[in-house]
Design a protein that fits this description.
Elements: H1 5-19, E1 21-23, H2 24-31, H3 35-47, E2 51-54, E3 57-60, H4 67-70, H5 75-80, H6 83-94, H7 106-109
Antiparallel strand pairs: 1-3, 2-3
Helix pairs in contact: 2-3
Length: 112
């Protein structure tokens, strides 16, 4: 999918609005662009006040107008955020866990 920066940034805005968060790695795959290009796009969009960046991605800016937006992020949202890296961590960790060992974290829970 070949796009100019204007088209790509508009599509990124659309994805952020639909999904709430996006990851650099995922966007690079979607747009067949380098991660450096996507990071530059996210920096540009953050400077314009459209998104807020976090390590590895960007999120929709909450208006603070609704009660749900001002609440702390819940388990479901944390679970979905950066799920691919969490799955890779869990797959590595599961090799170190033996019968009878337990760990209450949600990273390990993904392997259940």
């Amino acid at each position: 999918m070949t796009m100019n920066s204007f088209e790509r940034r508009n599509k990124i805005i659309q994805l952020v609005n639909e999904q709430g968060t996006v990851l650099v790695q995922d966007l690079a795959g979607v747009f067949a662009a380098s991660e450096a290009t996507i990071r530059a796009d996210l920096r540009f969009l953050e400077q314009k006040g459209v998104v807020t960046r976090f390590h590895g991605g960007a999120a929709k800016i909450m208006s603070g107008n609704s009660e749900t937006e001002t609440q702390e992020v819940g388990f479901k949202e944390r679970f979905q955020l950066a799920s691919a890296p969490k799955n890779r961590i869990a797959q590595a960790a599961v090799k170190m866990i033996h019968e009878g060992m337990t760990d209450p974290t949600h990273v390990i829970w993904t392997q259940a």
